Fold:
Amino acid sequence: LARMRQALAAYHVVGLSTNVAFLQRLVKSEAFRTADLDTGLIDRNEKTLFPPPAPVGMEIIALAVAALLDREARELRIDAADPHSPWTHGGAWRLNGGVSRQLRFGYGDHVLDVTLNTNARGSTLIYADQAAPFASTCQADDLRVNLGTRRAHGQVHCDRETFHVFYGGRHVALAWLDPLAHAGEAEGEGGKLTAPMPGKVIAVMVEAGSTVTRGTPLLVMEAMKMEHTISAPADGVVCEVLYRVGEQVAEGAQLLAFEGK
Structure:
């Protein structure tokens, strides 16, 4: 059983759905260990085999942030004609202090808010009412993060704006919600927010009754191998969310009902 669990944990599959997580839970179950196997196994052990999504811990968030920072560093444009340009480095140094960066990740129906504070003494990561020193090293998809008294080693595979974090036998897909990348993508007409093309809903950040400001990300959908964030066209209230995560939508379909102030 131990070898089977290790083999399943070694699978890193992104881009399509698999049953690896289900098989991991299955081989860890008491029924499997005691060979209590028949066609009714899944029904008898439904709560064990299909638990609610586990919370995303600080280590997983730290690995995703490390992967994001590493990707941004590799994407910096270097001008050979001006090797001393400050834009070549793009670090967090400031003349009279540090910088605080707000990051948001979509996880199913939830939005995870993260703060990264950086100054001359180092960085601090703040998430879910926890704060920890933050430092990281990256080699391709292999990452190590130092959180002071805790350390984490995992792999992160980036698929556009989705960060697939493999850590501790888990696979967690986090959608980075970049407000600059999606500025002006709001689709609003008569209080209706519609799908720009056929696709699938991969994250919902609000619920019925949510009060939002103009530009707030409301929903993320995947279409044509790209992610599209649907944002609030104005200050207002979300009256109804019409699609859930994983559902397919047609082009022009109303995604949310919205009432502007």
